[in-house]
Amino acid sequence: MKIIVAIKQVPERDAQIQIAANGKWIDEDDLTYAINEPDAYALEEALQFKEKNGGEVIVLCAGPERVTSTLRDALAKGADRAIHIEADDLAQRDTLGVAELLAVAVKAESPDLILTGLQSDDLGLGQTGVVLAELLGIPHATIIMQVEKTDTGLRVKRELEDGWFQHVDMPLPALLTIQSGGNKLRYATLMGIKKAKSKETNTIAAADSSEAAALKLARVYLPEKQKKTVMLTGTPEQIAAQLVEKLKFEVRVI
Amino acid sequence: MSGVLVVLEQRAGNWNRMSFEALAAGQQLAAALGISCSAAVVGSGIAALGTELASKRLDKVFLVEHELLGEYTSDGYVTTLEQLVKQAAPNYVIFPHTYQVRDFAPALATRFRRVLISDVVAIHAEGDGTPVFVRQLLQGKLNADYKQTAEAPAFISIQAGTFRADTVVEGAAQIETINPAIEASQIRNKPGERFRESASTVDLTVAPVIVSVGRGIGEADNIPMIEELAAALGAELAASRPICDNGWLPMERQVGSSGQTVAPKLYLAVGISGAIQHLVGMKGSKAVIAINKDENAPIFEVADFGVVGDLFEIVPALTKAVLAAKS
Ligand SMILES: Cc1cc2nc3c(=O)[nH]c(=O)nc-3n(C[C@H](O)[C@H](O)[C@H](O)COP(=O)(O)OP(=O)(O)OC[C@H]3O[C@@H](n4cnc5c(N)ncnc54)[C@H](O)[C@@H]3O)c2cc1C
């Protein structure tokens, strides 16, 4: 089984976010980046699948030079090789444009299985995987918690709303978008980090976007508050005393 | 048609509760732009749902029926809706942002070389200007205005709770039955029965007071500190998803779109950022108190009282003060 895991590099979860001067994106200068969390679970699922069923795990990432650090981390965790689609203009491409970049690289590899996270922590569109599957003409399933190999293809456990689940049987090749939390993430070992140095990263230049983007991100800004929040300040003891007052006389639960 | 087409969601003849929120969104967008609004429902044996829709102010109700649509599959829905959108030729296709819509609508939009504007939290539209669709970025830390630059159709999904189902305008509409051309061989996935993991023994929905803990707690060993606060308040303990995923608290204590939906008198959120999937499960609470070290955490947008600070200092002090007040 040849598995491709499409991963994305996003601002770290605790990063302090500043809106860029042009008001159209965030200031990227002092940001620290990490692998998109659901993509980390997609990689983990792929590595476990390979351990059980054999095969090869290839990590794929589109983005500027900085994303190679995320690819290296994935190699250190156990991916066999990496493909970097070098592109500095991802912000100008919409989901379809990015999925088209990925599709070119994926087609050249003819994998049996493609995994990706169910959405990105930055844009949160939750579509790249599904669009990629459609471009490749293969079946997909989303919000997947578990993947099992069967005689005819795969059986996956799909999350539904309100705590419900469903198994879905599907043929290969297929694309799955993986939900966070289904497995325990591994850490890179010292040995893994050493080995990663000799693993291959294939860098390919992104083709120019063939068509204008269908969507435009016109402006980013801080959300307006839905409620008037009363902020309590002081020492922890002073804050606790104020909260108890509120709990007694306003919320009336003491 | 050149109007708005709302695609409602049903399963086994029952509406998804977000369907009518999407319908309200569609009616309001159509009214703002001065164009017509129609609705579609897809499935098998759903005539009664079509009749119900025909009592709303709509141009048309498309009753899209086929025996292969009895059970949801992405292939069945994409094939069907591609035909419907081509036939009805709407400018805007609106969906509720459900897990099912996440599964098929991006592929449907791709068939038209468009990109779904997913999880929309507000629409600004008037006259003949291009409407602005607002989405959240970075798990709710920022908002972003999106515009479609391509020609119609535009595909949009609406986040839970953005529009109110009770604002749907009543009226009368004609029903048009559509039998799409689908072959069994086009459906590649075979879905199984729906199931739940384990019978739930905790019913958070009836708890008057809930203390809920998130990833700010750092590690499992710190959970007892939150349990003590909950005990002092006589509250049920709940959690965000990562806490349950890690096994620090059982799954049945999870609040949010994939957990329970609660509306207590008080929801005290400790170290929870306030991602939308969490907020949909608790924003009906009468009062919300949030404790978080990040002043820009989205949980403060729905909080009545907020404390910006380190939970490891605030929570023990609060537990002590609550116990003192009660004795
Ligand atoms: C399809 C889908 C379904 C989902 N369903 C659910 C669901 O049902 N329920 C749910 O909760 N999530 C759900 N999620 C996940 C959701 O998107 C978020 O990832 C999750 O809610 C984040 O949990 P959190 O707030 O505990 O963690 P984080 O987002 O990591 O937030 C931790 C917070 O703690 C604060 N903090 C850290 N240290 C301290 C300290 N010492 N003192 C005070 N504050 C501190 C930080 O500032 C931060 O705001 C779902 C996601 C998807 C895609």
Automatic annotation (TrEMBL), chain A:
UniProt superkingdom: Bacteria
Please name the CDD domains in this protein's record: ETF_beta
Q: Which GO terms describe its molecular function?
A: electron transfer activity
What PROSITE patterns does its record include? ETF_BETA (PS01065)
Which Pfam families does the record associate with it?
A: ETF (PF01012)
Domain (Electron transfer flavoprotein alpha/beta-subunit N-terminal) ranges = 23-213
User: By its UniProt entry, which SMART domains does this protein fall under?
Assistant: ETF (SM00893)
This protein's UniProt keywords: Electron transport, Transport
Family classification: Belongs to the ETF beta-subunit/FixA family.
PANTHER family assigned to the protein according to its UniProt record, in alphabetical order: ELECTRON TRANSFER FLAVOPROTEIN BETA-SUBUNIT (PTHR21294), ELECTRON TRANSFER FLAVOPROTEIN SUBUNIT BETA (PTHR21294:SF8)
What is the name listed in the Swiss-Prot or TrEMBL entry for this protein? Electron transfer flavoprotein subunit beta
Please name the source species: Granulicella aggregans
Organism lineage = Bacteria, Pseudomonadati, Acidobacteriota, Terriglobia, Terriglobales
Automatic annotation (TrEMBL), chain B:
For this UniProt entry, which residues form the secretion signal?
Answer: none
Q: Name one GO molecular function term.
A: electron transfer activity
Record Pfam families: ETF (PF01012), ETF_alpha (PF00766)
* Electron transfer flavoprotein alpha/beta-subunit N-terminal domain segment(s): 4-199
List UniProt keywords, sorted A-Z.
Electron transport, FAD, Flavoprotein, Transport
Write down the required cofactor(s): FAD
Residues that, per the record, bind FAD: 215, 240-241, 254-258, 271-278, 292
Q: Which GO terms describe its biological process?
A: fatty acid beta-oxidation using acyl-CoA dehydrogenase
What note does UniProt attach to the cofactor annotation? Binds 1 FAD per dimer.
Q: Which family does it belong to?
A: Belongs to the ETF alpha-subunit/FixB family.
> What is the name attached to this protein's record?
Electron transfer flavoprotein alpha subunit
